[in-house]
Amino acid sequence: MKPNKSLPIIAVLIYFLLGFDLYAQSSKQDIYELRTYHIENKDQENQVDNYLKNALLPALHRNGVGKVGVFKPISSQPDAGKKIYVFIPYKSMKQYLALPSKLEKDNIYLEAGNPYIYASHNNPPFKRIETALLQAFTGMPRFKESNVTGAKKNQVYELRSYEAATERLYRQKVKMFNEGEIEIFFKLDFNPVFFAETLAGAQMPNLMYMTSFPNMESRDAHWKAFGTDPDWDRMKVMEEYQNTVSRNDTRLLYPADYSDL
How many angstroms separate the CA atoms of 139 and 123, rounded? Predict the structure, then answer.
């Protein structure tokens, strides 16, 4: 039997088509980068703030990222003054992957970010950077800017991570959000910013989402209403959704004064 010399060409075409489909699919749902800057003192906080405000956020805006959220733990949190969270929404994986090379060629960014980029080894601007890569739920494929108003220092942005004991149980919790739980958040005016699956991160399998409130009193009242909502009462006892969350990691944050969100 003679070898089929056309097989490699067919394989290449299939690979190309699959790759094209992957990009097409990803463009239907946002890709989120959630960076956590771990800092040790006020000097590092100032260095990161200056870099984000004057270099990174303007560069992201120039490259098609319209809104970027920068958040810090409220004073009552154990990590207050120790972390800065940056939420970057991309329209596709392609946009996310293209950004680093664009920043390397952006002279405005390089000049504005010079003190951060070329910081000395004995005066670094942070201790570590932790990154999670997320994909928006099908039930809310694009992030939504919060309608919360008032002084930013009083606002509460609640970032939650729901971990699951197994991958199957994780998938069931994602299903629960897509098939009704997200609707409850909108019905009760939680001002959700995003709901997303973690594609790469430290606490997998886990999903993450963010809601927002004008103040802590509003946040507490909204969760009280959620706990007695009839739709939630119906869903939470369904057999298919039992034991889907093994750990709830909740972070209470406020937006930096230069945050877009």
Answer: 44
User: Are 184 and 229 spatial neighbours (Cβ–Cβ below 8 Å)?
Assistant: yes
Quote the strand ranges of 57-152, DSSP E. 69-73, 83-90, 128-136
Instruction: Say how far apart CA 68 and CA 71 lie, in whole Å.
Output: 10
CB atoms under 10 Å from CB of 112, counted, come to 19
Domains in the chain (CATH in brackets) are 28-255 (3.30.70.100)
Residue 4 has pLDDT above 70, yes or no: no
Separation CA 187–CA 30 (nearest Å):
22
Q: pTM, whole model, 2 decimals?
A: 0.88
Helix (H, G, I), strand (E, B) or coil at 69: strand
What average pLDDT does this structure show over 191-195?
A: 98
Token pair listed for 52: 């984000």
